[in-house]
Design brief:
By secondary structure, the chain is α/β, with parallel strands linked by helices. Helices cover 37% and strands 17% of the residues. It has two domains: 191 residues, inorganic pyrophosphatase (n-terminal core) (Alpha-Beta Complex); 123 residues, Diaminopimelate Epimerase, Chain A, domain 1 (Roll), CATH 3.10.310.30. The protein is built from twelve helices and twelve strands. The strands form two sheets. A six-stranded parallel β-sheet has the order 3-2-1-4-5-6, covered by helices on one side. A six-stranded mixed β-sheet has the order 7-8-9-10-12-11. The structure holds manganese (II) ion. Manganese (II) ion binds next to loops. Manganese (II) ion (MN) binds next to loops.
């Protein structure tokens, strides 16, 4: 067996954490928090408490996605405007402003832990690994390398981050290290089956009404290699859902034979939100999203445009075809 490739920087990571004894540390993730973001916040809170610091987890939203509430409910989250901290740590947040507008007023954060390929190293200490499957994978790896044991609650939070960001261990970012660390987290008390049921088998019925509409809306382009689904304000209203219920829908067209790029475009607060997925890192969706001031990973990105979709559609489809043609056959 090959030697496992760990992330470097574990030594530096813990030495920074250990200097925070007695300090109030604000921990922020990104807007529209996902499993990786919440998992990393919970894990950082645990590590900092073990270091004698006073961690505070920040949340710039009113609530969490329904399928993640079970994990967040055991913790207090503080609104950014009510946060009084000495230092700030950002997790799973490629660009500082993705945490929310409040971030404009913050001093330079002490630490960043992230894996978004389009991210910026905006903190004093940047633990930035675009090859990581999840921010939680980075933290789990640091813990494992330094033999820092964590309890079942933190192991569960980290496992949630990894299982969600890897599409249940299916994306190309899933490597031996990812599975090894998932196994380590299970040894520390994460229960893979229970986590799976909580996240993936608790879907509200309304979401299936939305899924029906999404599947009915699918359009194919470029000889079936591009597939786009569309949801309108009216779809959300008539099914009693919100933009939060779109989570995971784009994965359906992604699995259709012949589809290389799948997209969902939906209305959100008068704007159009677009999420794209591909099964091939060579297609460099991160570079496509950058044209629309979005970001993400090689195979998974999102961006927002100010126009209604109908106005933006033609340019979008054209640009996507041009992008796919120019990146097909290349490797990153
Ligand atoms: Mn992530």
């Amino acid at each position: 067996m090959n030697v496992m490739e760990h992330f470097d920087g574990a030594e530096q990571f813990f030495s920074v954490c250990e200097q925070l004894k007695g300090k109030r540390i604000g921990i922020f993730g990104h807007l529209h928090p996902d499993g990786d973001c919440i998992g990393a916040q919970v894990a950082m809170r645990d590590i900092l408490m073990q270091c004698g610091a006073m961690p505070l987890m920040g949340l710039a939203e009113d609530k969490f996605p329904l399928n993640l509430q079970w994990i967040a409910q055991d913790y207090d989250f503080v609104r950014p405007e009510e946060m009084a901290a000495d230092e700030y740590i950002f997790v799973d947040c490629g660009i500082m402003l993705r945490a929310g507008d409040f971030a404009k007023k913050l001093p330079k954060p002490l630490m960043l832990i992230d894996h978004h390929v389009s991210g910026e190293k905006f903190a004093c200490h940047n633990f930035f690994y675009p090859e990581a499957a999840a921010t939680c994978e980075i933290i789990a790896d640091f813990l494992e390398q330094k033999q820092w044991t964590v309890g079942a609650a933190t192991a569960t939070a980290l496992y949630v981050g990894i299982v969600t960001d890897t599409g249940k261990f299916s994306y190309s970012s899933t490597v031996a290290r990812t599975l090894f660390l998932a196994s380590q987290l299970a040894l520390w008390g994460a229960d893979p089956h229970r986590i799976f049921v909580e996240i993936y088998e608790n879907e509200p019925r309304e979401k299936f009404a939305l899924l029906q509409r999404f599947l009915a809306s699918l359009e194919f382009y470029a000889e079936g290699t591009i597939c786009v689904g569309r949801l309108t304000e009216q779809d959300f209203m008539e099914t009693g859902t919100t933009a939060n219920d779109t989570e995971g829908l784009v994965n359906f067209p992604r699995t259709i034979k012949g589809v290389r790029i799948a997209a969902i475009a939906y209305d959100r607060e008068g704007k159009t939100r677009v999420s794209l997925r591909s099964d091939d890192p060579a297609l460099r969706l991160d570079l496509f999203a950058a044209k629309f001031l979005g970001g993400g990973h090689f195979c998974a990105v999102a961006f927002t445009v100010n126009d209604p979709y109908e106005k933006f559609e033609k340019n979008f489809i054209n640009a996507l075809q041009v992008h796919m043609d120019s990146f097909s056959g290349k490797h990153p």
